[in-house]
Amino acid sequence: MKKLSFFEKIIFWCNSIVAFLLLISFVLPFLPPKSFPAIALLSLTVSPLILLTFLFGLYWLLKLKKQFVLSAVMLFAAYSFFNPFYKFSSNDQVSSNDHTISVLSYNVRLFNLYEKNENTSNIAEVLNNTLTKAAPDVVFIQEYYRNTSHKFSKYPHRYIHFKNDKVLLGHAIFSKYPLVNKGAFDFVKTYNNTLFADIIKGNDTLRLYNLHLKSLKINPSVNSLQEQDKNMLYGRITLAFQKQQEQAEAILKHMNMTKYPIILGGDFNNTAFSYVYRTLKKGMKDTFLEKGSGLGTTFTFDSYPLRIDYIFGSKTLEVIDFSTLEETFSDHAPIAAVFRIPQ
Fold first, then answer.
1. Do 31 and 112 belong to one domain?
2. Which of 218, 228, 306, 335 is 20 to 30 A (C-alpha) from 294?
């Protein structure tokens, strides 16, 4: 076998660095951002690292070089450790009955209130199409606008919450079935929040959580990041991760006190490779991993796909369907899941 050329040695050196960083990322879900703020930032790079590892592997495979093994081993390890980052579709037939419940989660970005270059004329149509296609029993809305004209008329039971009488941004749970024991976390010094309520469907009662964790407050483009002061950017993101940790741990503590099966959904503002994802997934099923397909993209960063919106369910709930709806007026895609309630 021929020795590597100088160019190939450089390629393999880069390949090795990427592999090393990907290896380090395996410990990220176990490291609290408060204790390891700098390392926590790596959770945002795991997806690109996996992509680079795949491209390096493809390069060596086409060259018929044994260096392909490094990428193959790292991809297998990442797939096994992080759970599948690509899902093949299932052809299960879904039938709704008295013992199923369907949920849709959607960050509506204040219905594009402050988006100057966005076309707002078709929002009602897109929202109606989304609700018609998913036909959810429950709708979780993040970044709900106080003065919106969208009434969600098919959902007579609702919990719409704002932190005070002055803010326009709130969050909401809309339901076809009665909601009781409603409340909100009202995290300090942030508009982000989490709502909870118990839903009663026939003889079944479930606890609902609608999450909107601390935002990173960054413009989703590489050019925007390059223009910002790096120290300020670093400080803002690490502080956001620490706040997310506080919020996730508070939610988990609250979840552990309920006796009912739980459905949790919303915008985590973080990836499936993060500490907050692992914290909130304890004892829960990720509906995308159970019944999703493709990459599960809910948000794009300069056209790069990210999954930062989730719907989880208790282990006792059977996930029978999951979908990511592509039509959207927001920067997030709506997601929907169907559960079967045990009897």
1. no
2. 218
The 3-state DSSP class for residue 281 equals helix
Confirm whether 329 is domain-assigned. yes
Task: Answer whether residue 1 is part of any domain.
Answer: no
278 within a domain of the structure (yes/no): yes
Q: List the chain pLDDT tens, one digit each, 343 residues.
A: 578 898 999 999 999 999 999 999 999 899 999 998 888 888 888 989 999 999 999 999 999 999 999 999 999 999 888 876 667 766 565 666 678 999 999 999 999 988 877 777 799 999 999 999 999 999 999 999 999 999 999 999 999 999 999 999 999 999 999 999 999 999 998 989 999 999 999 999 999 999 999 998 766 544 544 456 567 777 888 899 999 999 999 999 999 999 999 999 999 999 999 999 999 999 999 999 999 988 899 998 877 888 999 999 999 999 999 999 999 999 999 999 999 998 8
Query: Coil, helix or strand for 186?
Result: coil
Task: Give the largest CA-CA distance in the chain.
Answer: 73
Q: What's the domain count of the chain?
A: 2
In three-state secondary structure terms, 52 is helix
110, 168 in Cβ contact below 8 A?
A: yes
Contact 262, 206 (CB under 8 A): yes
| Strands annotated E in 114-261 | 138-145, 157-161, 169-175, 179-184, 193-201, 204-212
- Which amino acid, 217? K
Q: Do 284 and 250 reside in the same domain of the chain?
A: yes
- Residue 294 and residue 150 share a domain: yes
**For residue 302, what are the domain limits?**
100-340
**Phi, psi (deg, nearest 5) at residue 69:** -60, -40
Residue owning tokens 């176990």: 30
Is position 93 within any domain? no
Helix (H) or strand (E) holding 244: helix 230-255
At 232 the three-state DSSP class reads: helix
Q: How far is CA 261 from the centre of its chain?
A: 20
